[in-house]
Amino acid sequence: MSVQTLLISPPSAQRDTVGQHGAANQYSAADQHSTVGRPGTAGSEVVGIGFAPAHHGELLQGMFLDEAGVPHRALVTLPQPALGTRATFRPSYTHGGVLGPPELIKVRRAAILTLGQLPSYRSPAKGGQIEITSTVPRGIGMGSSTSDVTATIRAVADSHGHPLTKEEVARLAVLAECASDSVMIDDQVVLFAQREAAVLETFGQQLPPILVLGCDTAPEEKVDTLRLTPAPYDSSEIARFGVLRAALRRAVAKSDVPLLGRVATASARINQRYLPKPQLELLLQLGEQHGGCGIQVAHSGTVAGLIFDAQGEHVAERIERCAEALNRAGLPVTQVIDPSGRGGLPPARASA
Amino acid sequence: MTLRTVSEEATHAYQLPRLIRLTPNLYAASFVLMKMIPARYILRRAMADGLLEPETVIVETTSGTFGLALAMQGVHLDRRVVLVSDPVIDERLYRRLIDLGAEVDRVPAEAGRIAGGFQTARLNRLREIQAAYPSTFCPEQYTNPDNPRSYAVVAELLLESLGQVDCVVGPVGSGGSMCGTVGNLRSVLPDCQAIGVDTHGSVLFGHADAKRELRGLGMSVLPANLDHSIFDGVHWCAPSPAYQATRQLHRRHALFSGPSGGAAYLAARWYAAANPNALTVVMLPDEGYRYQDTVYDDAWLRAAGHLDNALPDEPVEVDDPRRPQGSWTSYRWGRRSAAEVLGSDQLLSGVG
Q1: Fewer CB within 10 A of the terminal residue: chain A, N end or C end?
Q2: Which ipTM did the prediction report?
């Protein structure tokens, strides 16, 4: 769990104040005479709260052709609703400076963009203070950044009493961080163009019933998603992604766990060329030994998961034994993910 | 809810097969014109890449349906199409090509006597034509990797409609359809079996080049697009069993296929019966119209001796793919390269 606070202001205020007066001075305690509550009327300060879940990498990520043959980078997120971010936004009506740990630059950008987006009659807020409380591990591909950003956008919108649609949240998130996972679209399985904030296809309402045994394939490493260059997929890979997309369409429609597992495994294999997981074959082997249906990986991180049929026989025991085998193999088990959010299994005994 | 849509072009409507269940574990992928898939894909890609200027002439060597598909797409693209063909091109096909605005350049009959037969003579003539025009584009179906790649759409359809496919059986000519379909299917279903159907006197899987009566499969020269390591098994089917099987397919299942599809049906029916738990798909590349005066005419079949022998129940399994032993033989290819199976000295030089 981490708690981080930073102050933000819209672009104009930022220009006026950054580096001149010292950002920390811009918000005095007296400035925060907040009346916490709902709904907000213009002029009164209302603290906004937003939540967003984490994810555990992707089930599918690649490049997909649309009807006109135009390629789009897109992904299908594996949600991890048991982890997430809570953002609190305290608006300010005076000029504000910018303050905060530099790694939350995307959060600040998201808040500023959201403020610019919301109708000003709702609130004259010029800036404010964002507090991030997150249970999402950072730098391993679990969407900590998108979770922070999404929670922030929702918190700012909440303080204005102006709920945004999922599509609007997605658009702002992508504007803030260039590429976002689709954690904001939490009630559908979608193929999401992570750089365009566009839903290319809605596969259905929910994933087949799976439990995913998560581990960290490189516990010493962190992946800086800002530094990752987009994978230069070739024509054959793009053709294969189309095949995987069609298979996933069926897997979701028919609630077919083995097919879902094959799609995720195939996606992980194709992407080995770009962000290789050295233990991919070991993971596949361990999964097979314990009755798993395939593996999934974070395409911009180090986490990977072994997919199990949540309704399979003795699934809890098999996952536990598999977790022990993973830990013995030096791949620290982190969690068991139930993307449906219904709880699934108690977390496996983690050594990490 | 997805609404069914209209096709913008006839070639789009023509390309995908209908999937039809023949027996509990045998499905037909029945095409009107299978070659539409690579023809359309290659030409549309060339158009998008700026390779088809208004004056560019599309040239190709073909005596069959690939030329028809090119001529059809040439209509949509408003480009001139010149096809180099055998002297023996089917008269109905010829008239149809001319009506589509294509020019058909037939190599002289005596060209059949040179080494490599008409296929080599056609390639030589093609080079002459390419030299005569300022701008030409040749799809090169035998060597262009876009040919197999284009068949990803068939793999998509099979996966979306069936989910599980245990075996694909289909005739082999350029190698595009079988290698492309199975290669792409295997990214999701790595255990999917592939059985290629060839004919006597074709060099594709080791026979010595000889005159072939059965059309739509087999080659006199080895095409680069044939990846031998895709195939688990190979069948060789002589004209008589192919024609009889074509008629049975029509009588039993009301499917009006050309004889290359009939040969594939013979092998697929045997495989599906021998492996009742294996979901088997047979590729039927075209319809029977061009064969109404021959394969679909009992008097013609009888006069040519094609009804003298009853259809065998099963193939003769051979241990040397180079030696024809009967009208229907099979060989366990085992996903090996041609050099592994035949020895490198047996390999003829590739096309192109």
Answers
A1: N
A2: 0.91
